[in-house]
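We read letters as residues; the integers encode the fold. Take this protein.
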Amino acid sequence: MLAMCYPPFDMWGLVWVALVPLFVSLWAGGGERRRGWFGFGTGCLAGAAFWLVNLRWILEVTGLGWVVVAIYLAMYFGVWGAFAAGAGNPWRERRRGAAREAGRIEAKVLERTERMERTPGLGGKVLLFGAMNAGWWCGLEWVRGWFLTGFGWNGLGVTFHETPVLAQGADLVGVTGLAFLPVFVTAVVVQAGRGLHREVRSGRWRAHWEAGVAMAVLAACFLYGVWKIESSPAGAGAPLHVLMVQLNIPQEAHRVVWEPERVHAGYEEETLEALEALDDRNAARVEAAMRAAPGRPVRLDVPDWVVWPESALPVPLLFTPQGDQAVVRSMRTTLDRVLPAGAFTLVLGLNEAEAVEEAGIYYRKEDGKFYNSILALPAGEERFRSYRKQHLVLFGETIPYREYFPFLDWLFRQSAGVDFTGSFDRGKGDEPLAVPFGRLPGREIEIIPTICFEDTVPRHLRKYVLNGGQVIVNVTNDGWFGRSEAAAQHFANARFRCIELRRPMVRCSNTGVTAVVGATGSVVDPRSGERRILAGEEGSHFTRGWLFATAYVPAAGPVTMYARFGEWFAAAGLAAGLGWWVWAWRRGRGRSE
């Protein structure tokens, strides 16, 4: 049920019931001894079921990798299950008391327990155990997002990607903190449900105010979301007009199927056709305005940026340690055909390769630096501004220590079916990528740069946030995974960066989802009401084409609580859970002695 909350199913409402069987299994099942191992095994089983369904798109590249990744991620469910079945189990104390007593003494203990359950103090216990289990879940999602470089994909909060009202709290606690809500509510409801069942059997009733508190927390999150959406002025900020081009080039793992010449011709043709179509649209508007109301201002669709996706062209930009840049002939031909068509900044994903210069000719340096980059070339300039990717994908863009362990290359070849062609180097720096922007006179617009899966790594984006005009830019290519749900899941995760940081996003993909996302996570243009997402005639994002859309860049964007303090909420949940676990363990040892 939990796996069906995400694309391609998007049955997000199941998040409120999906964890009920798991809670019941962990709290009521198993014996008294080795509760932790029982919970770990149960959690791992649930996690494996979830991840094997949720990550089935990895099968497009490797079956072995699909299983290995799913088993590894299932262990986080297992660690949570060990906590929930042991220290986080609100039903455990009663079983202990009953197991130690017999006959008349046991009856008295049970009678006393039932009397305690009718007191107001039980409601506080219900809330406490609900909060501890929810906080521990959030903390483990945070750890999963950075441990072993991290895989923060599809946390529980991502189920709200199509429920913007409940997603707005991410600017306070991040998407990891949003996981607290469904776990907490479910834990409280399961405990209250058990209490009601017992009360029906005994005929003695009590007021379940703790359920009301859980509903109040849910209502507060809902009202906060309504307030944030309604308080965001429609279309506020300087309009940034972008033209994004998507070719939908097929791939086999990392190998592009098209020949280089076809790739160059594709970007040239699609971009020039798009610019011509915009010119025709503008001419028609001017003509219609002159007939209807001469002298009236006319809005023209003129792109400030033209954006191409990750590694758009099959050639690198050459650079030297001295700061020189050189463009290879095929790339120069493409630029000479496209750039004269308008006064725009070209933003594209491209590789950068270290070079040496001899007699005015640049050659790629053997064993030189090699980066996966975003390049920006402002109108009228000859020098590219560059951001180099920092969060590299394991077994996709880098294989650590492969020079010492040759079997890792063999493992990649066996799983992906192709040879590993070499690692990228990791970029450095924490400064945004600045480019001129005429709509903010005398100022530059700051790009918060992300490449590929970096837009699913919130800690990476946080370091670029400043109080000024900023926009998140993501260039990506989900072509590795064909026409699977990987692209839709990737986009669902990426949208939360806009909410967490309150910055719009311009996102251009080769095969994936090309869109503009607002600061509330919406793809709807607040002025025109149009959806800013590229789709074919059948509604699929697996299509070739172009999208002209507008992002509204705040002149002085806020710095949210999440941008300032990061995963404070999830870290607090992890610390509280660890403390509770240690306390419960020491308490248990004291009783046994």
In short: The two ends are 43 Å apart (CA to CA). The first strand starts at residue 238 and ends at 246. The domain at 238-314+323-350+370-390+426-554 is CATH 3.60.110.10 (Nitrilase/N-carbamoyl-D-aminoacid amidohydrolase). The mean pLDDT is 89.
